[in-house]
Amino acid sequence: MENRNVATFIKVVEMNNFTRAAESLGYSQAAVTAQIKQLEHELGAPLFDRIGKRINLTRAGEAFLPYAFRLLKAEDEAIACIREQGDLSGTLRIGTTSSLSIGALPQAAIDFIKEHPNVNIVIQVSDFTKDLREKLIAGTMDLVWAMTEPPNPQNFQRILEKDVPIVFVAHPDHPLAGKKVSLRKILAEQLIVADREVGYTYYLNKFANDIGVQLEPVLEIGSVSAIINILEGGYGVSYLPYFVVQQAIEDGNLALIDVSCPDPELKSNIICHKGKWIDPVIKNFIEFINERI
């Protein structure tokens, strides 16, 4: 059912005349007649009695009239709602991994909300990117931000890609803090790493194997925040994404170690389902992230 035909029906009722309704709408009388006939066909009942030059609503027409007004009102409200998106409102649901959840994303979310107070952001954390992608397919999540391989183009689209530098860090009082050392030397330290299935730990293990060294961390733990707490307490060294430790470095709680090590060239991807509409909230959030991170 086309709302254009519904609007024509209401205009005919208001004018009580097909010709005057056509003139008011800027249509030909034949076009108005055709629209009413199409509407009657869709409803399965005549809407007007045509007696000579006079027209009157049938009982079906009288019953349909209040619904016709509701249909047009709903259309106006829908258009107004979309236009009001210029003010940005609604809930943005983002899935991410633990590394990103303690790094750039939370602060970016807060800064975005400060600029757009009518937006709510829900962040769900999982280190199983398969679970996050399944939520995209189910429609329970708008975006996923994770350090993953480019998504399957059949189901997902990549909206933004960012380089992710991976660095060695330790407490500022650590003997190697701020110094340039070899990979072999750093691997002999009290190394604390994230789960080996995590991309950057996987590459560290590969780099160690390439120089004939077995990766033997003193502690392997799935919580990046726990690793940072241990380092800030003065124990060990670790290999982590820079955005995770950036604030701690700027606050003077951690320090970089310059290690001669290959670049894993990791990237973070923000993806969504291929069929997802990039609405104004998502579009503005992506632009916000791209400018600040």
From TrEMBL:
User: Per UniProt, which keywords does this protein have?
Assistant: DNA-binding, Transcription, Transcription regulation
Q: Could you tell me which InterPro entries the record lists for this protein?
A: LysR_HTH_N (IPR000847), LysR_subst-bd (IPR005119), WH-like_DNA-bd_sf (IPR036388), WH_DNA-bd_sf (IPR036390)
Domain spans labelled HTH lysR-type: 1-58
State the superkingdom. Bacteria
Task: Write down a Pfam family by its short name.
Answer: HTH_1
Annotated GO MF terms: DNA-binding transcription factor activity; transcription cis-regulatory region binding
Please report which protein family the annotation says this sequence is part of: Belongs to the LysR transcriptional regulatory family.
What's the protein called, per UniProt? LysR family transcriptional regulator
From which source organism is this entry?
Mogibacterium timidum
